[in-house]
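#struct-help
A.M.: can someone run this one for me? Single chain, 544 residues.
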Amino acid sequence: MNDSNRCLAASRVVLLGLALTVSSVADAASVIFSRPAREGVELDASLAALTFTPVKDAMVKEAVPASNFGTLNQLQVSNQAGYSKWAYLQFDVTGLPAGATNISAQLQVSSTTTGTGRAITAHAVASTSWSETAITWNTRLPMGTALSTVSSHTSGQVSVWDVSTHITGNGSFTIGLDSAYAGDTNFVSSEGSTLPTLVVSYDTGVTTYQAYRGNTHSHTSFTSSHGEQVTSGDPTRNGPPSEHHALAKATGYDFYVTTDHSQEVAFEPTSATNAAWVATKQQATDATTSGYVGLWGYEHSENNGPDGTGHINVINSPAYLDALESGVGIQQLYTWLKTQSGALATFNHPSTGSYNSFAYRDDAITDVITMLEVINSNDSIHYDAWLAALQRGWKVSPVCGNDNHGFWGITRHTSRTFVVATARTKAAILDAMRNRRTYAALDDNIQIQYKVNGAIMGSTLSSPSTFNFAITASDSDAGQRISKLEIRKDNGDLVVAHTPATPQASVTWNPTVNDSTSRYFFLLVYREGSTGPVAWVAPTWTGR
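D.P.: on it. Structure tokens below:
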């Protein structure tokens, strides 16, 4: 194996099939990423992987038992009588962090042979002291425990063996290949053009989060009954979804949701293939980049009962309903929402009596309607309605819906919804919404996170009686420093407050609360010069 190939073992980490170059294996071990997941499904942001190339590999041939083939660019495996061939590969695994769990490993070797029924087995091999340029059939290493068998191979593609039971942590590991098939099956060695690799995946036990800012409630030109286009007489003045996304992206939003009224003319007839609905979804998708996430939804404006009234934003649903159609009420909406794969929802600008005083709740719909607009239209506060929903058993975290009809709110409004997510991707942001890791703020850059007993905000605990909080809040803008933090519980009752001697750009607070009766806690954040909160932060539920 040449020196340049050996260097690859210490410079490449594979994340979901993408290569990321780092300066050392130690650096590689610190990379944290998310495994692939369905939209809205909990992500494991602590899963990481390291990729290693062989420090040595060679094949041995029964027909020439004293000859060495360690410098050839191929590895052959065969079980032909008198002509059997075995292969060996050794890897030095380094960089797995202390505490890594769920370690798994795959041996990946590029085939130059196409065939089925060629059972080739990967074995654990005890010895790691063999020489690539000296090993022969006569000095071959005994094959140990069978790890896995692969029978189908395709030229130009990698064959993959699960060798997890052999790779137990950092160290040197030899893997042997033998075959039950009589003919030759050929693979590329480390002297060839495509190097064999050992991909070691593990759980770091550390999940990192970032607060991303956006808007969960906006209206485009498809909402023809409201907004700039009505006052101007121009039916296109509110702008299509694509222009909303473009302006939001240019203004520094991390994500933006367009949510037109579904009863508008553009959405008639109601259909998942309606042109306006298809365009709403497609333009959000087209706007999404590595630095911005476009999302779609619709506002379900239940104004005619009979089982209560109130507006609800439905986000990421495959289809939509017209709230004003006969037979469509809140209970019908809740039933329908449970059938919409990937959908989630938020109560919009509610009063305490909206939705028939937050009636008709069950566990299934509670897992769909996960948010509530504590801030609407930049500065309209719905705190009392949030408390009413929480007291009725809804597990909703606060968001800010700027509710802009047209472009005016995108650049002028300074309030934001923040999601505490593992990445700025569609899946991660929807996951944060679904798992109630959100806060609403009258500020466009305030950063807030907290954990309770090690669980991230929005979690449900297992009924402990002691709660250890770890809270951080920061805002470095002049005149907007953090002046007070409050932990509150059921009915909004104050539990404990922290007031720095002077307002701070960054505050860390780690109080312990003993409580055996409350059902939830949440956080309010204040800034200098304000009499009321600047941010309302997701509850953590106790499990009671």
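A.M.: thanks! The longest helix spans residues 275-287.
D.P.: also worth noting: The mean pLDDT is 88.
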